[in-house]
Every structure is written in C-alpha cells, then in structure tokens.
C-alpha cells in the first residue's frame, strides 16, 4: 500500500475535536473516520488506556492526509471492551503496581484472547462497508503493537503493519513475518530487542527510534501541548502514511 511521501499532515492540535463517528463492531465501540467509499482501510489497535483524543487525532490524520488516490477508511475498535489500565500503575515500581499489571494482562488485556477478535472484527467491518474495502493495513499502538505483531500472518489480511512503541518486544515474534512491517520505537523500549526484532523480519521493513520520545507518545501518553512531542507525533504519523 505504498504511497508517495506525505506532505499533507495538518498541524497537530493539543486540544482536539475528532472528525469521525462512533459505530458498533461485534459489540465493540469503534471509532470510524475517513471516506466510506475508499477501497483502502486501516485498522488501529490501540493501547491499554482506551481510545483517547490522541488516538482519534492520529486516525483522522491517517484517513485524510494522503493524496487523492490514497484516502483511507480508518477503524479503531475497543478490543479492551472498556476495561482499561490505570495511569496510577505507572511506573510499575512497587509490588502492588506490578501485581495490578500482571492481573490486567492475564485478564482484560490478554494478548491471545484479544487477538482472536481481530479477524471477526475485520469481517464485520467489510460486511458493513458493503464490500468497498479491498486492502487492509494495521497500526498497533503500545499494547496494540504487540497484538499486531502476533497476528501478522497469512491468515490475517494485512498488506502492511506499523507497530508504534510496541509493548513486550520479542525478537522471535518477527521470525515468521514476511509482510512489510515498520517499528516506530521510543526511548523506553529495549533497544537490543528492537534491533534484533528488525533483523529477524523477513520482508520490507522500517525500524526507527525516536530517541527523545517516551513510550506511548503516539497514543494516550502523548503530551501534545509539548512542542517536541507535538512535532514527533506529527512526524511519526507522516512516516506511518509513507510506509503504508
């Protein structure tokens, strides 16, 4: 789904009014934005803090900033079904916080269980789009980056995947990935794991680390009132568009 370099990303707003709408996909509250007639679609798998303004702004950027031949339908289902992590658990520097995260990832945010919901969601979206969607891409954010990695297989119809500041990067997960795959890492990921993950990818790839950005800057933890975060948020979504 490659497109020419994108130069049409609008200024990123610290306080944002979303342009899309909320729909229901397989019982999941889903943010939908972009042209319903486009044959190109992007699934965003979000982070553990829910679908906030930063994620919706990113979805709107992806939907509308490509050239006239590359407009997208973008869907952001709530795969966590309203069960989100508590910001108070960060950093996980006490036994209590670590236990809370452990229970959360074993329950509502279980990678294996939530991954099973992706293909049915894609099928429901295609059905509701009356068959207009012909090609899928995926953007995974934090927790969603790990989910996107785990489902990047021939059984899931993604032509390309971008994983942003992915959670729990395991280089072995990359060994069977042959589709185009990008990783946009922050300063907080394990640099050695990101490097090995990139080396293990079998297809076209992009590995880029934003050395000054914290984990989560493209999603709920992005402080868009900070000029540097704002600029790198914009640059990261530009890079995503260019890779798709």
**Number of helical regions:** 7
| Alpha-carbon distance between the two ends | 5 Å
Gyration radius over CA: 17 Å
- Structural class by sheet pairing and helices: alpha/beta
Integer average pLDDT: 93
Question: How much of the residues is beta strand, in percent?
Answer: 15-25%
Summarize this structure briefly.
This protein is of the alpha/beta class and 244 residues long. It has 7 helices and 8 strands. β3 (40-45), α1 (53-64) and β4 (73-77) form a beta-alpha-beta unit.
Describe this structure as you would to a colleague:
The longest helix is centred in the last third of the chain and has 17 residues, at 227-243. The protein is of the alpha/beta class and 244 residues long. The radius of gyration is 17 Å and the shape is globular. The chain is 31% helix and 20% strand. It has helices at residues 53-64, 95-106, 111-115, 118-128, 143-150, 191-200, 227-243, and strands at 21-25, 28-34, 40-45, 73-77, 135-141, 158-164, 181-186, 205-210. An 8-stranded mixed beta sheet has the order 1-2-4-3-5-6-7-8, sandwiched between helices.
């Amino acid at each position: 789904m490659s497109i020419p370099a994108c130069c049409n990303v609008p200024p990123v707003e610290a306080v944002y009014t979303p342009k899309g709408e909320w729909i229901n996909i397989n019982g999941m509250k889903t943010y939908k934005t972009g042209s319903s007639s486009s044959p190109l679609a992007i699934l965003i798998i979000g982070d553990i803090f829910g679908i906030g303004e930063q994620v919706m702004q990113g979805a709107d950027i992806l939907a509308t900033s490509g050239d006239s031949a590359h407009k997208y339908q973008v869907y952001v289902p709530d795969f966590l079904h309203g069960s989100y992590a508590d910001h108070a658990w960060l950093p996980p520097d006490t036994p209590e916080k670590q236990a809370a995260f452990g229970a959360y990832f074993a329950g509502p945010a279980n990678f294996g269980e939530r991954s099973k919901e992706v293909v049915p969601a894609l099928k429901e979206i295609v059905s509701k789009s009356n068959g207009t969607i012909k090609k899928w891409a995926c953007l995974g954010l934090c927790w969603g980056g790990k989910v996107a990695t785990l489902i990047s297989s021939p059984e899931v119809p993604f032509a390309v995947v971008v994983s942003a500041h992915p959670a729990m990067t395991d280089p072995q997960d990359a060994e069977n990935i042959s589709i185009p795959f990008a990783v946009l890492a922050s300063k907080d990921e394990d640099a050695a794991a990101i490097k090995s993950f990139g080396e293990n990818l079998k297809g076209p790839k992009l590995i880029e680390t934003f050395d000054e950005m914290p984990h989560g800057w493209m999603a709920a933890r992005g402080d868009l009132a900070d000029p540097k975060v704002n600029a790198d948020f914009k640059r990261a979504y530009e890079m995503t568009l260019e890779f798709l």
